[in-house]
Structure formats: structure tokens, C-alpha cells
Prior knowledge:
The protein is an alpha/beta fold and 184 residues long.
Amino acid sequence: MARLGLQPRAGCPAEPPALRWAAMRARTRFVTDASLEQLARRLRMLGYDVVTHRGARLEELFAAAAAEGRTVLTLSNRGAPRRSPAGVFVVPRGELAGALRAVVAAHEPSTPRWSRCPACNSALQPRSAFEALGEVPGRVTRLGTPLSSCPSCGRWFWAGSHVARLERWFESVLGPDPERPDAR
């Protein structure tokens, strides 16, 4: 908590339970640079709106954030430039799981899980197996699993074994998702 600039009140435990964080959480749209691309991809999988500006300096991120109504997601402890309306959220350095926990504890996702393209942040569009013919492996279209595609980058998505592995990783980092019907 101290890394985030938060100090516990007298008589409160140093790390409050997740339920205490629920009241503080807000839906936030983020902007970041390529140094946090792995975190940005994982956040997009969870439904967070995170735009990445590759090669941008911190000042450029604040300008983009101000123009788009976003919060800067950064590793830098430097604050926002003077008179900048953009907020800043500093994530812990060096550990993907810790950075993910910090963001999720303080902010709500914009959309449901698996509804954003992890590569480019666009909202995924549901598609039919017929539309996917020739674009995805034949075994995927024959299974009849729901398919989605990204209108921006053209990638296709379906709930394969990689989704199950990522869900297990998310559960190990964040705990069970109370909104999922199969959560323990």
C-alpha cells in the first residue's frame, strides 16, 4: 500500500481485505507506454481499457491522457506535469502479479472479461463459425465454440486451452472471481 501512496488509518490492518477496496474502486481508462505492455495485455483480458503508446515519453503520455480522458499507468515516480488534468497511477516495479493486483484493487474494468482485444484494445465483436472459415483452425469451427474477432487488427479469439490457463493464473494472483458461476 505504501508504494501506491496510500497509508492505512490508525487501527486498520496494513493490507485491507478486497471488500474494503470495493468502495474505492472506479472505472478508469488508462494510457501507458511499451514498458508496461505485458501488464496492459493482461488488464485488457480482464476488461480494462488500456491504450499503449509505444516509444512515448512520459510527457507525451500525459498529453494523450488529458486529450482522451485517461489515467497514465506508469512505473515512474515522477508526478503529473503542472496544470495537467490527467491522473497518474504508479504500479509496482518488477512483478507482473503485484502490478496487476494494485490496478485491480483500485479500479473497475470498463467491460467484461475477454471482451477487449489484448493486442490493440478494441472491443471484440461476436462472429459466427461461418465467418471464421479459413481464418481459424477447422477444429475450432467444428466445435461450435463462440468466436470473436477484432475489427481493428483482424485477430480471431475463442475460448481454447490458453483461456483456461490464463483464468487459473488470474485466480492464483487475484483470488476467485465472485461473478463467475464456476468460482469456488
